[in-house]
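User: Can you fold this complex?
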Amino acid sequence: MNAPETIKLLRTQSLTNLVHEELERRIAAGQLLPGTPLREASIATDLGISRGPVREAFRMLEERGLVEFEKNCGVRVRQLDLEQAMQIYQVRIPLEALIGELVAHRLTPETHASLQQVVEQMRLTVTRQDIPCYTELNFLFHDLLAKYTANPSLYDTYRRLVVQLKLFRSYTFRHNPETIALSLQEHQTIFETIAARDIAASKALLRQHAQDSLIRLQAASQSS
Amino acid sequence: MNAPETIKLLRTQSLTNLVHEELERRIAAGQLLPGTPLREASIATDLGISRGPVREAFRMLEERGLVEFEKNCGVRVRQLDLEQAMQIYQVRIPLEALIGELVAHRLTPETHASLQQVVEQMRLTVTRQDIPCYTELNFLFHDLLAKYTANPSLYDTYRRLVVQLKLFRSYTFRHNPETIALSLQEHQTIFETIAARDIAASKALLRQHAQDSLIRLQAASQSS
DNA sequence: CTATTGTAAATTGTCAACAATATGCAATAT
DNA sequence: ATATTGCATATTGTTGACAATTTACAATAG
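Assistant: Here's the predicted assembly.
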């Protein structure tokens, strides 16, 4: 690692932030399942640090709705039931509509190219039936849309909700060769509508897309 | 203080939570102005505790978007410019619409009575021209609406945005005898529409109400 | 055998001390 | 006079230790 990079790291990164990022990553990736207790001392010694920064990271995760404190009993990864997941979706739906409007309105050559690239990669994963990779690109596509609204508050609010949704067990939709092709089609249409800068249509499409996801979530959780 | 209360406090409250609540209260009340540096040691000794819980509270406030860390330089109350305030409003507007729908749909005799009481109190403050008190009741009215949607995620998301807006200097609208009467009229109409359980009208009214607030915010900040 | 009590281990809550970094100011050199 | 260097002070970042609470389990009484 070169000197300027190291300096920048030391100037910006604290142990607290590192722990926070690492734990959030593990939770979002499903490595730390909802309900798992997180013990300060264990995490601290694993990372070779003291308990202070771990506790600070816990407080940040608590505010993000990813873990829950129970005084004197410790911290556990938050568990979401179907009702809570549906409530989050209820908030997400109008935000997706807003994202559709703004991203279509604010589209630049750079963001257009970036979105196009992701859709193209999605097409390739469908061709080779790489469902896990498709799922990741799906998240990325929607994350980029939120980012390209150029509204940090919207992006932040949106991300909060999406990360919390990962605490619901059957959130990640189990794609099969049939549904994945339909999903690809839908995302291509969304991209084209945004690329055409059709604000009203983008808004309607993304709202409907979120509503459909909610329906699938209900169906999936009732069948299991 | 009686024993059961004390026990409940000890079982649930930690120093971290107390510090967090106290600081958030001071920030929201405008006692700690945007840009103010917060020194750990000073706050700790003021409250008669050590720096640990204060740091944890800082991390929580950071995640709520109320303070900002600068490594090795400390924490300051976050400052919002007009653009950021408008971006927050952009998110708030569709949420207000959703609140209108849900609160009209979910209205119970209890919530109805509670809202009616607040509107009545607002009327009294207008009669006696108590503008600060009216402003407080105004916040309370909208907070209750969000709460009565019975969607904790929506309430949480909404509160985040509203608290952050208080970081913008000219957020609290300066009422005068003319505008306060108009505002009261508007809130009475909102209440009546919700009481009539007119979902579509409640949605439209609250969206428009939020949009009008945004316009006033722009006007107020340009004139100052 | 069941229920209760007591005790030990583990874990969290809090604190105080140490290390590292930034800030302000005086001294010096150009 | 201005800029730079060096030092003292203040503040944050991190750590390890102590206090308080919970949990698990064994011992005891009924």
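Strands of chain A lie at 37-38, 67-70, 74-77. Chain A has a mean pLDDT of 94.
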